[in-house]
């Protein structure tokens, strides 16, 4: 509907250009907004005020000329000029009625568009380090990223969903070493587990697999492992003033593991930990309704030479300098707060060097738009990544970083802790089992991504109107129940074709529903282009409320067959839009509750 009116305005603009009243080489995109007060019409545009100076005339005069040039349309009842030059459009009654057969005819395609046709977008999201199971904080990024990707696809973009696997670097070495130390304990070795190791039960499980399948083949005397290591920081039960350096201690253990096991055996333990957790992450995300076109390995960047290539390109353009044996990227030249190390003095490339190579690769793959979805704690990373893209000669504006605040989970009024290292966290799998996939997906995207989210488990499980996902799903189920009741009464509910009988929809509740239904494509487009899934959840709650109010005020299966036909059509349209919207969020549409 909105696009139809935009097309009418564009035609009027072209008419004024052809008449010589406007000198435009390219027609501007008309800005058309829904009015907040329906007494001012349904839509309004400020186009006359925007172009008045160019037309060398008063805004109201230009508005009048635009109105006179508008083609006749059955959609429009009247057009008025308001204030300094706003043009207000009042839709004809039939325009609202026409949305019902449109919805029933197009079905699942209602709300889809081709706004982004011909444009490729990459959405990279979650990308949690494979050092432990996904927790409820990761779940929000997963739900948000998946819905953003699906919304973009719904409006025509070619969307590539990607997970960046951090399968290289120190954290993975800490995981591999943690698995090996737990394995040694299972072999009967007595040792003090490092304060900076991964302590979750999942580490024991991986170590148990290693022990079950290989016995003592990887066993080394604990005294050899811990010989001549820097002291660890104190752990629970030890004096707090005990001297020690947990970082130096864990690095010493990693070096000992590599030396005592040798390359092949150490790599086996490393890969066992990585692949076990990565398989678990894949399964968790798939069961949460999140799938990817690509799982991109960080290690592949080093193995393919992409990291070295990126560093050499920066060096060749004069953006790399050496200081105290390390290589630094001069990111301050592009607005970053300080320069960044890309190669340490020991010759090892940093995480940032891999990130530069990864984003260089993204740009070279030809995406028109690259969307990174990160946790809010990574906000400081944005300037340095964009600086690197600029230094490489790329268009940093093609990269959009969306920050997602972690969700804070409450159970019984108490906040759950989330720490992968300590193992004290609530997993996404546990959350899904407790409240269900539908509630988790809906709750995660109810607010803007940058807003904090307090996830109330009790509310998510409740069967009440206060639970937003239950309230929306119940509206869908209620429509289905009406159809079952009709079948039980032997009433024919096969709706008549087209707009037949819809003129009988004159009740205020019906007019409200029609106005809400007609907005759905606009909401989908706006939510997609602004990466704001909460717009869709808010719309669905509004539509559900409009329906429940209608349901409580009127009978649908009335004796008047014409009126019954019109009302059945209307609620079938409501059911279809609820189903379409819930589907975009990854939530089911139950037929009974």
UniProtKB/TrEMBL annotation:
EC number, UniProt record: 6.1.1.19
Top class in the EC scheme: ligase
Entries under SUPFAM superfamilies matching the protein: Anticodon-binding domain of a subclass of class I aminoacyl-tRNA synthetases, Arginyl-tRNA synthetase (ArgRS), N-terminal 'additional' domain, Nucleotidylyl transferase
Arginyl tRNA synthetase N-terminal domain: residues covered: 3-91
Entry keyword annotation includes Nucleotide-binding: yes
UniProt motif ('HIGH' region) ranges: 128-138
Record flagged with keyword Ligase: yes
Cellular component GO terms, alphabetical: cytoplasm
Ranges for domain DALR anticodon binding: 472-593
Any one GO MF annotation of this record: arginine-tRNA ligase activity
Location of this chain's protein in the cell: Cytoplasm
Chief place of localization: cytoplasm
GO biological process terms held by the UniProt record: arginyl-tRNA aminoacylation
Catalysed reactions, semicolon-separated: tRNA(Arg) + L-arginine + ATP = L-arginyl-tRNA(Arg) + AMP + diphosphate
Keywords, ordered alphabetically: Aminoacyl-tRNA synthetase, ATP-binding, Cytoplasm, Ligase, Nucleotide-binding, Protein biosynthesis
Subunit structure: Monomer.
Recorded family membership: Belongs to the class-I aminoacyl-tRNA synthetase family.
Protein name per its UniProtKB record: Arginine--tRNA ligase
Organism in which the protein naturally occurs: Thiorhodococcus drewsii AZ1
């Amino acid at each position: 509907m909105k696009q139809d009116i935009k097309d009418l305005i564009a035609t009027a603009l072209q008419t004024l250009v052809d008449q010589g009243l406007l000198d435009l080489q390219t027609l501007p995109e008309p800005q058309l907004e829904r009015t907040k007060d329906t007494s001012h019409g349904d839509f309004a545009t400020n186009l006359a005020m925007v172009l008045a100076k160019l037309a060398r005339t008063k805004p109201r005069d230009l508005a009048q000329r635009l109105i006179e040039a508008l083609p006749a349309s059955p959609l429009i009842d009247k057009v008025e000029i308001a204030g300094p030059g706003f043009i207000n459009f009042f839709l004809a009654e039939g325009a609202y009625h026409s949305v019902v057969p449109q919805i029933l005819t197009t079905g699942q395609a209602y709300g889809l568009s081709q706004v982004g046709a011909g444009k490729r977008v990459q959405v990279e999201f979650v990308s949690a380090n494979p050092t432990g199971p996904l927790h409820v904080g990761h779940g929000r990024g997963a739900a948000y990223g998946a819905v953003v990707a699906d919304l973009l696809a719904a409006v025509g973009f070619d969307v590539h969903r990607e997970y960046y696997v951090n399968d290289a670097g120190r954290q993975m070495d800490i995981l591999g070493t943690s698995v090996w130390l737990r394995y040694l304990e299972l072999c009967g070795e007595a040792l003090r587990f490092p304060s900076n190791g991964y302590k979750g039960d999942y580490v024991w499980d991986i170590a148990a697999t290693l022990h079950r399948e290989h016995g003592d083949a990887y066993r080394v005397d604990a005294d050899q492992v811990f010989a001549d290591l820097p002291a660890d920081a104190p752990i629970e039960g030890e004096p707090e003033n005990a001297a020690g350096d947990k970082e130096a201690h864990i690095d010493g253990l990693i070096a000992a593991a590599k030396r005592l096991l040798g390359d092949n055996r150490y790599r086996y333990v490393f890969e066992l930990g990585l692949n076990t957790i990565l398989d678990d992450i894949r399964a968790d995300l798939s069961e949460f309704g999140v799938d990817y076109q690509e799982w991109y390995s960080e290690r592949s960047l080093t193995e393919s030479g992409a990291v070295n290539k990126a560093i050499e390109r920066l060096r060749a353009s004069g953006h790399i300098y050496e200081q105290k044996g390390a290589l630094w990227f001069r990111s301050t030249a592009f607005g970053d707060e300080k320069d960044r190390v890309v190669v340490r003095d020991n010759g090892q490339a940093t995480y940032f060097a891999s990130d530069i190579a990864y984003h260089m690769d993204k740009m070279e793959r030809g995406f028109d738009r690259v969307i990174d979805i990160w946790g809010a704690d990574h906000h400081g990373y944005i300037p340095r990544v964009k600086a690197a893209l600029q230094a490489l000669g790329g268009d940093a504006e093609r990269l959009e970083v969306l920050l997602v605040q972690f969700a804070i989970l409450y159970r019984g009024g108490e906040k759950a802790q989330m720490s992968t290292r300590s193992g004290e966290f609530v997993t996404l799998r546990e959350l899904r089992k407790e409240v269900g996939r539908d509630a988790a997906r809906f709750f995660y995207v109810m607010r803007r991504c940058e807003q904090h989210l307090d996830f109330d488990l009790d509310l998510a499980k409740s069967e009440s109107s206060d639970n937003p996902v239950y309230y929306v799903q119940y509206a869908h189920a209620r429509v289905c129940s009406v159809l079952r009741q009709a079948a039980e009464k032997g009433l024919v509910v096969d709706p008549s074709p087209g707009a037949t009988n819809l003129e009988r929809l004159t009740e205020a509740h019906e007019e409200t529903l029609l106005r809400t239904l007609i907005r759905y494509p606009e909401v989908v487009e706006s939510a997609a282009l602004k990466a704001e899934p909460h717009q869709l959840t808010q719309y669905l709650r509004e539509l559900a409320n409009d329906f429940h109010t209608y349901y409580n005020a009127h009978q649908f299966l009335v004796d008047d067959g014409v009126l019954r036909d019109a009302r059945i059509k209307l609620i079938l349209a409501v059911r279809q839009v609820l189903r379409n919207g819930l589907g975009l969020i990854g939530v089911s549409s139950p037929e009974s509750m």
